[in-house]
Amino acid sequence: MKVKNKLFLSLFFLFGVIILLGGMGSYYLRWLASDSAAIMKDNNRTLSYMRTIEESVDEVNYIILTNDTVKQEISSHFDSIKSIMEKQMANITEPGEQELTEKLSRSLKKLEEICNSQDLITPHFYSTFIVPIVHQVKDLSGSIYLINEKTMIQKNEQANATAEKAVLYMGIFCSVSIIIALVFMLGLPAYISKPLETFEEAIREIARGNYKVSIPAKTKDEYGELANSFNTMAAKLEEYEHSNLAKLIKEQKRLNAVINQLDEVILGLDENKRVIFANKHCIKLLDLERHKLIGKYAPDVATNNPLLNTMIKELMIGFLEDETVSYKPLKVVEDNKEKLFAKNIVDIVEKPTGTNRNVLMGHVVILTDVTNFAEKDKAKTHFIATLSHELKTPVSVIQMSAELLRNKKSGDLTENQKELLTTIENNNERIRRMINEVLDISKIESGTIDVTLAKENVEELIEKAIEGVQLFLDEKKLSINKLIMPKLPLIKVDAHKTVWVLNNFLTNAIRYAPKGSLLEVKAIHKDHRVEISVTDQGAGITHENQKKVFQKFTRLVKTESGGTGLGLAISKEFIEAMGASIGVYSKQGEGATFWIKCLPE
User: Fold this and answer.
1) Which of 230, 429, 469, 509 could potentially form a cystine with 536 if both were Cys, beta carbons 3.0 to 4.6 Å apart?
2) Model's pTM, two decimal places?
3) CATH topology of domain 370-449
4) Please, which residues bridge with residue 535 across strands?
5) Keywords assigned by UniProt (predicted)?
6) What's phi and psi for 343, nearest 5 deg?
7) Yes or no: is domain 247-364 CATH 2.60.40?
8) Tens digit of pLDDT for each residue in 216-262?
9) Residue 148 to residues 52, 82, 155, 216, 357: CA-CA distances in angstroms?
10) What count of other Cβ atoms lies within 10 Å of the Cβ of residue 152?
11) What is the pLDDT of residues 10-33, one digit of tens each?
């Protein structure tokens, strides 16, 4: 039987007990009321009638004894007696009362006839005829009175017995009802709660990872069905626990835990730019609640979150095909302190089984706190700049001394002395150039780099750059092929810094180009930009080195002499400060092409 039906029957039984208890009480109360009403209604009336008749007869007797003429005075009393007798005849309820009432009626009629037959009632007539009838009337009324009185006593005793019986039955029924109610009160909660306790304990075991727990299905009610369902669930969970999916989810949770413990800010997006995970540091930095970020379309959230907008900006805008992929550091205020974070975006690609093509699976945005490194780098740069400033004085003195030695006023020099002086001048020039580069990078890092933009002719800039390296070209017997598109628009750049960058491109090309080879300088108008490039026929640059070539202090050949590894880094800062872009194309063994792209005026 269902638990619902059991509860319904239990409550229905208790409801029936209440109704039966009320019904019995009503029944016995009605019974007592009926007995009491019978006493009051029938017998009490008869007693009243008999008393009235006796009083009326006494009145008639008194009138006869005190008056000589009685007809008129007693006629009204007899009329009253007749009326009462009629009522008595209609109120006969007890055995024998009918016969006595009829005799009483006849005696009263006889008394009336005797009284009405004489105009004057003499004492002899009174004692002979009237007194016997009066005694007879009183005897009959007394007998009727006695019958009803005894009946009233019997009915009263009967009512008392009924009341005692009702009390007894009600007491027994109430006692039985109380016992049954106690059984329900003690048994029903235990019946309902005990299976629940069993389920609660089993659920705790499931929560602990014990999927072998089971609940015996002893009944066929809802608890039994629930126990069967629970056992099936536990079996499925155990099966799931040992499945590959469970292992994958476990590994995913482990990976999430590791990501959450990392100091880096990590944000994961799927291929549709929806946020799929974010570690605690990321949630804290974005100042968002987790449920308002995970599963949301990142650009929608970024609308009201400037930091997130900066983090995913490159994902939404993208890079040009020939543009170098680079991400600017971010300045973020965390814990009331301004910090610098290096940004990197990793594209997650995978080859689906059975295919050779890469499919984009998502992106991971990583912010690394480089505040300490930046501060140390600034300190280092400041130190180098200070050192460079200090070195400028001895360099200037060396240069002045060399010029004085070459002056004929100082005397003639031997060939050996001239060679030594030339060596001194070359090395001094090299030191001076290195000092200037270090000073430039120091200015760039301190944010004090000055850019003066003006409209410039592309061909003139190229000519000035070539003129600056002409001696080096002659030394390696290199030639330059200029390919300049006619009618190029003017570009808005800083002429001095642009020439310096092109000069740096040419210097590097000369350094790595084979002797007697050809360098190519090209200027074209393409995709609404003016592109200027320098191409050599050297060994080329690997794809890995192309990503590092614009970083500071990077030298592709560790054994080469000359250079500080700052030239391209400074070039990058100069070009980007002018709102232009810089990059390199290269294949190993096929030379390298360094280019800048400037906006036309």
Assistant:
1) 509
2) 0.39
3) Helix Hairpins (1.10.287)
4) 520, 593
5) ATP-binding, Kinase, Membrane, Nucleotide-binding, Phosphoprotein, Transferase, Transmembrane, Transmembrane helix
6) -110, 140
7) no
8) 877 777 777 788 888 888 888 777 766 656 666 677 777 777 777 77
9) 15, 20, 10, 75, 121
10) 19
11) 667 767 777 777 777 677 666 666
